[in-house]
């Protein structure tokens, strides 16, 4: 059963709470922008777009331009808009979550609660792997800390192994997008976090790639995947915040804004106003 929030939060650590709120607002903003751009795309007029796009050339650097065809741009963007916008949203989500975890660690250390993040051993030596190994270590830490939480939404606590499986899947898909042009490769499978009962989640198109490792299989995502990744990151963020406040700062009441039935304040979330 969900515990109600106390109206006063004087005992909650405000730096930790601020990290949580910034990440929470940012993740909600990404989802709002995703819905907005998808809705706009359904009502777009190509000729109006051509009038608004740069003519013939795009300023590519401060020194030079690149020529392009605006009709070709709109044609290809319309054809791939859903998949491309989904990729962009996924990258933003993982970046926000990673930054939030790093900020949690910073404040915990500054307040006398240093955390130990384990390195993977390679050839008998402790070292970082390429492709975002530091974020992988942060996720391991966040999962272990979240599993210590015993306040808040009981169903959410029970599905933590599945939730972090989705978050780790988002991490590995993000790596494909930013490191491999959004194409599957074997590391997507071998890099999954498997310990402590985390339920490994795999994109179904990976198995298409695994049948022929020479073919190019792109990461394709739609609204359902984006929504599920968003839910996973936000839910895990809430649980981690609750656990940190209780286990390190002795504040045993969960943070929850649902009791107030408060609408999302988009002006504050989008621009911080």
What does this structure look like?
The chain has one domain (14-42, 71-271). Helix content is 59%, strand content 4%. The protein has helices at residues 14-42, 46-52, 70-110, 133-147, 154-158, 160-179, 187-190, 205-210, 223-249, 266-271, and strands spanning 57-59, 65-67, 121-122, 125-126. A two-stranded antiparallel ribbon has the order 1-2. Strand 3 and strand 4 form a beta hairpin. Helix 1 (14-42) runs antiparallel to helix 3 (70-110), helix 1 (14-42) packs antiparallel against helix 9 and helix 4 (133-147) packs antiparallel against helix 6 (160-179).
- Principal-axis shape equals globular
How many DSSP E strands?
4
Indicate the low-confidence ranges by residue numbers. 1-9, 120-132
Distance between the termini: 34 Å
Total number of helices: 10
Largest sheet entry: 2 strands, antiparallel
Name the beta content range: under 5%
In the sheet with the most strands, the strands line up as 1-2
Order of helices and strands: HHEEHEEHHHHHHH
Helix content: 55-70%
Broad structural category: mainly alpha
Number of domains: 1
Average pLDDT, rounded to a whole number, is: 90
User: How big is the Rg?
Assistant: 21 Å
Q: Which characteristics define this entry?
A:
273 residues; mainly alpha; two-stranded antiparallel sheet; two-stranded antiparallel ribbon; 4 strands; 59% helix; 4% strand; globular
């Amino acid at each position: 059963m969900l515990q109600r929030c106390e109206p006063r939060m004087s005992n909650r650590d405000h730096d930790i709470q601020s990290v949580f709120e910034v990440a929470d607002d940012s993740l909600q903003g990404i989802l709002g922008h995703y819905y907005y751009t998808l809705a706009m795309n359904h009502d777009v007029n190509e000729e109006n777009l051509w009038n608004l796009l740069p003519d013939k050339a795009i300023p590519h650097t401060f020194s030079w331009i690149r020529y392009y065809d605006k009709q070709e741009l709109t044609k290809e963007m319309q054809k791939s808009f859903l998949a491309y916008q989904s990729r962009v949203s996924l990258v933003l989500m993982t970046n926000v979550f990673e930054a939030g975890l790093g900020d949690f660690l910073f404040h915990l250390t500054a307040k006398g609660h240093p955390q130990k993040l384990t390195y993977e051993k390679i050839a008998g030596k402790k070292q970082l792997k390429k492709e975002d190994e530091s974020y992988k270590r942060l996720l391991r830490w966040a999962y272990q800390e979240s599993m210590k939480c015993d306040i808040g939404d009981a169903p959410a606590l029970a599905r933590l192994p599945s939730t972090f499986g989705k978050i780790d899947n988002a991490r590995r898909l993000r790596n494909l997008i930013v490191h491999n042009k959004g194409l599957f490769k074997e590391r997507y499978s071998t890099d999954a976090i498997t310990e402590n009962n985390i339920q490994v989640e795999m994109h179904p198109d990976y198995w298409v790639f695994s049948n022929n490792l020479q073919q190019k299989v792109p990461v394709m995502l739609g609204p359902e995947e984006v929504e599920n990744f968003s839910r996973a990151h936000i839910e895990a963020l809430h649980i981690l915040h609750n656990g940190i406040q209780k286990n390190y700062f002795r504040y045993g009441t969960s943070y929850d804004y649902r009791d107030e039935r408060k609408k999302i304040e988009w002006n504050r979330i989008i621009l911080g106003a």
